[in-house]
Amino acid sequence: MQKVKIFDTTLRDGEQSAGVNLNKSEKLEIARQLERLNVDIIEAGFPAASPGDLASVKEIARTIKGASVTGLARAVITDIDAAWEALKDGAEPRLHTFIATSPIHRQYKLKQTKEQVIETAVQTVKYAASKFSVVQWSAEDACRTELPFLAEIIEEVIKAGARVINIPDTVGYINPEEYGAVFDYLFENVPSIGKVELSTHCHDDLGLAVANSLAAVKHGARQVEGTINGIGERAGNTSLEELAVALHIRKDYFNLETGLNLQEISRTSSLISKLTGMPVPPNKAVVGRNAFAHESGIHQDGVLKEKTTYEIISPELVGFQNNSLVLGKHSGRHAFRNRLQELGLSVPEEDIKRLFGVFKDLADRKKEMTDEDLVAIVLEERLSK
Ligand code: KIV
Ligand code: ZN
Fold this sequence. Notes:
GO terms for molecular function: 2-isopropylmalate synthase activity; acetyl-CoA C-acetyltransferase activity; manganese ion binding. 45% of the residues lie in helices and 14% in strands. By secondary structure, the protein is of the alpha/beta class. The strands form three sheets. The chain has an eight-stranded parallel β-barrel with strand order 2-3-4-5-6-7-8-9, surrounded by seven helices. Bound molecules: 3-methyl-2-oxobutanoic acid (KIV) and zinc ion (ZN). Zinc ion (ZN) is lined by residues 13, 168, 170, 201, 203, 233.
């Protein structure tokens, strides 16, 4: 089965989440956990952004041996020099440099013509390739760029020495079918495309980041960029844990695998939530508190009979202990009886129906029934006898 590389940018794009600021030791702790998760590449920061970020990237590049470490640089020589200073002691110094290519960015942000953008990109890629072992080049706002121009600039930066070409959906604008077609177009229209690896980098403004990334791999991308818990600029980036589990569960469809140690997912998610101060929403796929919780009687009954009736991912796969049957007003008698047994409360079968009625009355008034509620129901019943 072919492999998809995982490029983790939790420490760079993820740290661009509003209100998040990680210090050096926090970044190092996260990088160590990403190494245990077995990501292929860690984007540790943006060295030109601040002396603190440069120091963090340097420390991570020196320490981490189980993954390549990279840093971001604009198409500016001083940015590339700062990144070199941070990364030169790493095992395989790797740079990620970018320039915007879309008409909106060219006109309003860069104030450069197409020709000038190509020239800047080529010069900076050549400069970077004279220092770094691997240069990755990104076309910022690629998905709002004219396709012929995108193909033209990619051909030029490949000739200048780029080894990985990233196609970011910087503003989370595209949809899966269109994004897949962008990759098809590049494979057909960039003569040197066979010399490089294509990468996907999606933002979640329309809630499509994971779906778009999956479309990209279906159309030939072999590197996926994203963050743990999907944190990142605005609505965030592709959730790497969702993407990796989707590829794993639907191997039959994608026929691709990541090298991630999936059992480290829950630990990685909790650590990042704790250190960034960004809680994981309860209904978040794969890592949310409710991702393996079953509430309705029909589902609980099914899961008690055979887990796979309502569970496509086993909680153990991603490092959780087990699923949970949350008792509430939608729960059925089967789950109620089961929980009483788990709590060691022996209740004769003829009493279950009546106690279940008491349980339903109380559940109507409460959001979630706790084990203490169940104990109280049983003890009250015993006292009233
Ligand atoms: O979203 C984006 O375009 C980026 C680039 C710097 C790759 O984060
Ligand atoms: Zn981004």
